[in-house]
Design goal:
Layout (H helix, E strand, L loop, with lengths): L12 E4 L2 E4 L12 H7 L10 H19 L5 E5 L9 H15 L3 E4 L5 H11 L4 E6 L13 E5 L2 H10 L4 E3 L4 H15 L8 E4 L1 H18 L11 E3 L2 H16 L20
Parallel strand pairs: 3-4, 3-7, 4-5, 5-6, 7-8, 8-9
Antiparallel strand pairs: 1-2
Length: 276
């Protein structure tokens, strides 16, 4: 059977590197000049540095810088918590104790590099002779890396920074915190639940602070079936610094033995309130 001839008229074809564009009128970006010509000849406003293609290069550069800085880190644990935690608060003391215990166990400590609970964990690690890492973020208000950061980098993009927190850590320890801390918590749980990462402990420190959230997860999410009952095993709640280290080390041992399986830990919600 012979196909009927098409009366469709050929459309103008333009090339932009590997991209083929057909139809429509040439835009200012495809006005008949070549990419090299526009690169070498064009003079004018600097708006181009704010375009999406240019942002892609900035994003790429942040990944390259982060990977280059952190690629040779020893085993590490990311610690999160509120930037608003004052130095005389029990949560700050807990952060120092956790940072110190992690360093003594041979782990580098990664935080967001800011004040509060992040500073506490960096401080504990640094004072114990461990490696203290700070991954900062560009914010509308100034927030320098705290003075206990040994190795630090500031990111423009939250999602690049989050990748570094996960890629170079064996576990997350979550101290009491606000929206940013909750964001990191639930992203970590999602990655573990969907097996994007395996054998990755998520530890909530401070039962008095976290018990209400855990009760809601159990009584609402699990009860209505929006999560499985087994998902309650994806995190640990504790007030014991020693248990933090034990959970991380157990998962580390299992990972090295080739066991990347699901539930690693047990939810503890009956412990007493966090003490100084």
């Amino acid at each position: 059977m012979t196909a009927e001839p098409s009366d469709r008229r050929p459309r103008p074809t333009r090339h932009r590197g590997p991209v083929v564009l057909r139809g429509g009128e040439p835009t200012a970006q495809t006005d008949g000049s070549t990419t090299d010509q526009r690169l070498l000849d064009r003079r004018g406003p600097s708006d181009w540095v704010h375009t999406d293609p240019w942002r892609v290069l900035r994003i790429q550069s942040e990944f390259v810088e982060g990977f280059g800085l952190l690629a040779e880190l020893p085993r590490a644990v990311s610690v999160f918590g509120s930037a608003r935690t004052p130095r005389d608060h029990p949560h700050y003391a807990a952060g120092v104790a956790i940072g110190s215990a992690l360093a003594e166990a041979g782990y580098a400590v990664i935080t967001g590099g800011g004040p509060g609970a992040m500073e506490a964990a960096n401080r504990g690690a640094s004072d114990a002779g461990g490696l203290s890492v700070g991954l900062g973020i560009e914010l509308p208000f100034e927030q320098d890396l705290n003075e206990w950061v040994d190795v630090g980098i500031a990111f423009r993009y939250f999602f690049v920074r989050k990748t570094m927190f996960v890629k170079y850590a064996q576990a997350f320890v979550i101290l009491p915190g606000g929206f940013g801390t909750l964001d990191e918590l639930f992203e970590a749980l999602t990655l573990v639940q969907t097996r994007k990462v395996t054998r990755f402990p998520v530890i909530l420190f401070g039962s008095a602070y976290w018990s209400g959230l855990v009760d809601w997860i159990r009584s609402t999410l699990a009860e209505t079936g929006t999560i499985n009952a087994a998902d309650l095993e994806l995190f640990t709640v504790t007030d014991d610094v020693k248990e933090v280290i034990e959970v991380i080390q157990a998962a580390d041992t299992a990972r090295r033995a080739g066991d990347g399986g699901g539930g690693m830990q047990h939810v503890h919600v009956d412990a007493g309130p966090l003490e100084a």
